[in-house]
Every structure is written in C-alpha cells, then in structure tokens.
Amino acid sequence: GENVEQHPSTLSVQEGDSAVIKCTYSDSASNYFPWYKQELGKGPQLIIDIRSNVGEKKDQRIAVTLNKTAKHFSLHITETQPEDSAVYFCAASMDTGRRALTFGSGTRLQVQP
Amino acid sequence: DTEVTQTPKHLVMGMTNKKSLKCEQHMGHRAMYWYKQKAKKPPELMFVYSYEKLSINESVPSRFSPECPNSSLLNLHLHALQPEDSALYLCASSWTGGEAEAFFGQGTRLTVV
Known about the structure:
The structure holds two protein chains of two kinds. Chain A is mainly β. In chain A, about 0% of the residues lie in helices and about 55% in strands. Chain A has strands at about 5, 10-15, 20-25, 30-40, 45-50, 55-60, 60-65, 70-75, 85-90, 100-105, 105-110. In chain A, β6 (about 55-60) and β7 form a beta hairpin. In chain B, a hairpin with a 2-residue loop joins β5 (about 45-50) and β6. In chain B, about 0% of the residues lie in helices and about 55% in strands. By secondary structure, chain B is an all-beta fold. The termini of chain B are far apart. The interface of A and B includes residues 34 and 94 of A.
C-alpha cells in the first residue's frame, strides 16, 4: 500500500521567516496530495492541495510543489506568523483502488514571535 | 459550507458500556470516513462508506461497528472497548473517494475507563 514519509518532525522558525515541510510517497498511482493544519483540540483543516497534473499551486502565503518523477511534494509557508503554529500533515490518495487518504507522520511548526 | 459536525465532543465510557458517535454533513458528499487519532500521531483510517455502502474496513476490531443510515449521517457504535481505544475519533467526508477534497469534523475525544 501507499506509504508517506514527512520531514522534519518539528520545525521552529522566527516570525516572518519561511518554513518548508517535505513529503515523499511510494505509490506512483497516487494523484492527489492535500495538506492539513491541525490545531490543538481540533480536527485537521484542509489548507491547500495539488493534483498530479500540476507542478505548483499557490494561495497567498502558502504554496505546494510536486515532483512526480521523484515522488515528493513540499509545503512552503512564507512570512510566517504565530498563528501558523500547529501540526501540519501531508497526505496522498488516488482515484482507483484504496480511495482514501494516507497521512504522513506530521510536522509540529512553532513560529516564535 | 464545508462543515462536518460530530457529536459528542467528549465521551467517557466504561469498558462494559455501549455508546455511539455521530457525524453529519450537508454538503452532498457521497463518501464518509472514520479515522482514529492517537496523541502526536497522524489520523489512521478505520472505515470508508461510499454511496452509503461500506467500501473499506481497515481490519478494525468488531467492538467498533459503523453505520451509514443515509447519505448525510455516519455513526460509529462502540461496545466493550478497551482503555487503549481512548483516542480522538474523526469523521470526514468528500464528494467521492480518491482525489476529492476531504473535510474533517472537530472529532470526539473518547476516554475508556
């Protein structure tokens, strides 16, 4: 089955700096890659996603890039703010077979004011 | 509206109790999911319903029994749970499985005593 690896497990940045979180996936059939933000005591919130026919997608301060050949994708957050502090999960899924999300292990992002 | 509503928010139950978790969405989504999340871990898939039929059971013990009464509702019936079943139980929904955006509820924090 699909396996998603995520790095780093923790990331501490100064307010205003950029943060990058990286994920790799194992199944070349995966074609959908969402990113979720989870704050303490809450459910995961979808913040951005990318499909395999696109190499990059941007939404204000966040962007995601996908390299299908290398089977990795990354989340980029620019101009970080304290409210960006949370746990971020990458995930992968496909529209055939096991049509459900497989999550990475998560990254705890701490933005220092 | 991308809201998935889960009740109750918190539940404490004894090992001999029977209880149910409820999930509701009104987005017209036809796929609904139960995930289990332990502290500092990613969500783990338990069950997937597609068009009100159970399509995936990730080898979940029979003390967890899912039910999808209609396209908007998803229940998880609990019986004879163990303390190690204490976790955050998350419900999610999407238009269909695979590469459709999945939206999560806030979860039910379950404690088995």
